[in-house]
Amino acid sequence: MNNTLDLLFGGPPRVRVMRLFISNGGAVFAIKEVVKRSKIPLSRAGKELSLLKNVGLLKQKQTIYKNRKTKGWQLNDEFHLLKPLSLLLSGDRPEITRKLVHLFKPMGRIRLLIISGIFLGRDDSRADLLVVGDALKAPRVETLIKKIEAELGREIIYAVCDTEEFTYRLNAYDRFIRDILDYPHETLLDKMGGQYKT
After folding, report:
1. Which pTM does this prediction carry?
2. Residue 91 predicted with pLDDT over 70
3. Could you tell me the CATH number of the domain that includes residue 34?
């Protein structure tokens, strides 16, 4: 068993690949999807997938990628260490959450940062992240979101808007904004003086 654990934890790329599969249940991913979502090189992805298959965490399965049949990979839900491994990999979610304010500060004048859903360990939320700010650098925000998704192993459902747009959507009872504010959430940064609260 110790050999299995030694093989499992071989650095951040392996952790990202494991988290991707554990966070997405029975999903089947082609190697190029693993590369895209985990933000690791193709050569490294191949090695990690083979290793994780050899220890029993993953299994191979045919899939369709870009309209072509290809070799895919899927979580082996009978892996004997799956439950403790899942708990271990979700245990550092609070650490990622603590970094969010710091990560978003260079993206513009952030006025409001609210988390929900995946960041609170909930799968029943429609949204995960709301960022309100001005002079936001859209391409950099998108790149940052992709990096956070790679760390979490899951896609993030999010909204990014400037203050004027947010105020308009709030007053118009925009469904997405209401879903974030009306359900369990946590405010990480508020420079709007709580004006969004009803």
Report:
1. 0.72
2. no
3. 1.10.10.10
